[in-house]
Design brief:
The protein has helices at about 5-25, 30-90. It has one domain (about 5-90). It has 2 helices and no strands. About 0% of the residues are buried. It is elongated and about 90 Å long. By secondary structure, it is mainly alpha-helical. This is YtxH-like protein.
Length: about 90
């Protein structure tokens, strides 16, 4: 077995062990502790969703800017070609 495969397996095993420990701890928590955990998870989910939406909005804005720049450059190039061809034809 390659070293990278061993490391990947070890990381997976540690992740599984951490998940099992978290499940065990949650299962044996009081209702108040469970509520706190649920609230933390909901907050983390809301922050993740907000970050995703922000990134999506920035990406759309950037795409629009690039699209506009390309359209402007195309129009300028087309106009330059037209002007040059008119100069040549006389």
């Amino acid at each position: 077995m390659k070293s990278s495969n061993k490391k990947t397996g070890l990381v997976a095993l540690l992740g599984l062990a951490g998940g099992l420990f978290a499940w065990y701890k949650y299962k044996n928590s009081t209702p108040e502790e469970k509520e706190k955990i649920k609230n933390k998870l909901n907050e983390a989910g809301a922050k993740l969703k907000e970050s995703y939406q922000d990134a999506e909005a920035r990406l759309k804005d950037t795409y629009t800017e690039v699209e506009d720049t390309v359209a402007d450059n195309y129009a300028k190039l087309k106009n330059n070609i037209k002007n040059e061809s008119e100069k040549i034809s006389g």
